[in-house]
Design brief:
The chain has no helices and ten strands. By secondary structure, it is an all-beta fold.
Length: about 120
Amino acid sequence: QVQLVESGGGLVQAGGSLRLSCAASGIPFSRTTMGWYRQAPGKQRDLVARITSDDFTTYADSVKGRFTISRDNAKNTVYLQMNSLKPEDTAVYYCNRVSTILGPFGSWGQGTQVTVSS
């Protein structure tokens, strides 16, 4: 079955950096477009970055130039390097598939909390 395990979150001051990891299993990882989503309290879950099977990346405008998504197919892991963090980046971060046809996998991980203090 699909399993997504996020890690690497924490409390950081504004301007700081964090690197998130997501280990995936039960999916054809190397052929899957993966993404990082985030959900702030009281808000919907939004896609912030995605990476295709051939390493093409796209970003939400709010994180462009500050976040970098990458993947290691040998480890079935996707990463999110977050620099120049802002308080508005505070959210629970999740990884999942990005597909306009299939949508995300129905099984979400527990997410990893990122809190940015001002």
